């Protein structure tokens, strides 16, 4: 399917690896020029070079922490005029409800709620002026089915979800869509780090931790970054203009619900 977005330009945050990279690759395959970001420059430059070579699109990069206000301003400057925004950042660490202090919540809110909100606030006006735009926020399955050990993530992402519900309906009339993609378990470094936590906490091998988690997914496996990226690219396509303010689960059926 031609996604109809060749020649558009996208900012994909936190995109040197994992789900962000999947989104960057799928958009590039659709002919979208990119601004890519991650903190570590080595993996970022390698990913950018690979995408340029495979898809022939223009890829600019800025290595910085997207949750840092000054760094984010520089990223927004670089991305000025983008048609597509994919927000993403690392997820907060797991723990117990009693582990977290105010500072931990502030950090999680900064990364997974206030950063995407700041990016939208900066880049939505240009999209609205031009009458076309797409925003996809990478959130989590925990938005629909909170995961007990991920209290920081549950809290911050619930805040972002509420913001998107209202904002998406305020900008839709200008040709701009905002939606959230909710990953269940995908085979990325994040999944490895969560499996490591389970393996240490339960005294089992990494393989057993992974098999145990895969058994909770009706699809019987972890998702891939390519599958995730394809869903993101579709939401950014010309065909998705009537999809507004949705929270779309990509979880292999793990969350058992009807809506
Ligand atoms: P990942 O494989 O660990 O990749 C994270 C990417 O983001 C890397 O490119 C990393 O590069 C970059 N990054 C992290 N923090 C950043 C920051 N502050 N500023 C700029 N770049 C940053 O993670 P993932 O699995 O793709 O997860 C992406 C998001 O989805 C996370 O919020 C995660 O919690 C959520 N999620 C993932 C899963 C899953 O199963 N994978 C499930 C539910 C939710 P640098 O380290 O070099 O910055």
Record the SSE blueprint.
Layout lengths: L8 E4 L5 H12 L3 E6 L2 H15 L3 E5 L5 H10 L5 E4 L14 H29 L2 E6 L12 H21 L4 E8 L5 H14 L3 H9 L10 H11 L11 E4 L9
The structure holds NADP nicotinamide-adenine-dinucleotide phosphate.
Question: Would you give an account of this structure?
Answer:
Helix 1 (18-29) crosses helix 8 (225-235) and helix 4 (102-130) packs parallel to helix 5. The mean pLDDT is 97. The protein folds into 2 domains: 9-184 and 224-250, Rossmann fold; 185-222, no CATH class. The two termini are 27 Å apart. A 7-stranded parallel β-sheet has the order 3-2-1-4-5-6-7, sandwiched between helices. Strand 4, helix 4 (102-130) and strand 5 form a beta-alpha-beta unit. The protein is built from 8 helices and 7 strands. The protein has helices at residues 18-29, 41-55, 69-78, 102-130, 151-171, 189-202, 206-214, 225-235, and strands at 9-12, 33-38, 59-63, 84-87, 133-138, 176-183, 247-250. 47% of the residues lie in helices and 14% in strands. With 259 residues, the chain is α/β, with parallel strands linked by helices. The structure holds NADP nicotinamide-adenine-dinucleotide phosphate.
């Amino acid at each position: 399917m031609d996604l109809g977005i060749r020649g558009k330009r996208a900012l994909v945050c936190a995109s040197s690896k994992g789900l962000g990279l999947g989104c960057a690759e799928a958009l590039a395959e659709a002919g979208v020029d990119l601004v890519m970001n991650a903190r570590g420059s080595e993996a970022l430059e390698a990913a950018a070079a690979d995408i340029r070579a495979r898809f022939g699109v223009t890829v600019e990069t800025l290595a910085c922490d997207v949750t840092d206000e000054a760094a984010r301003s520089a990223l927004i400057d670089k991305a000025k005029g983008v048609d597509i925004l994919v927000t993403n950042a690392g997820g907060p660490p797991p723990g117990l409800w009693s582990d977290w202090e105010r500072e931990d919540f502030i950090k999680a809110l900064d990364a997974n709620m206030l950063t995407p909100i700041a990016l939208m606030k900066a880049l939505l006006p240009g999209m609205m002026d031009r009458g076309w735009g797409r925003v996809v926020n990478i959130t989590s399955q925990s938005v629909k089915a909170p995961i007990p050990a991920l209290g920081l993530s549950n809290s911050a992402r619930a805040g972002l979800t509420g913001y998107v519900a209202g904002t998406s309906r305020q900008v839709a009339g200008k040709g701009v869509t905002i939606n959230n993609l909710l990953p269940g378990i995908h085979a990325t470094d994040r999944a490895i780090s969560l499996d490591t936590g389970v393996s240490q906490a339960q005294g089992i091998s990494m393989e057993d931790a992974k098999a145990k988690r895969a058994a909770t997914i009706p699809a019987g496996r972890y998702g891939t970054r390519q599958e995730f990226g394809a869903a993101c690219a579709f939401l950014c396509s010309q065909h998705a203009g009537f999809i507004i303010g949705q929270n779309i689960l990509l979880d292999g059926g793990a969350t058992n619900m009807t809506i």
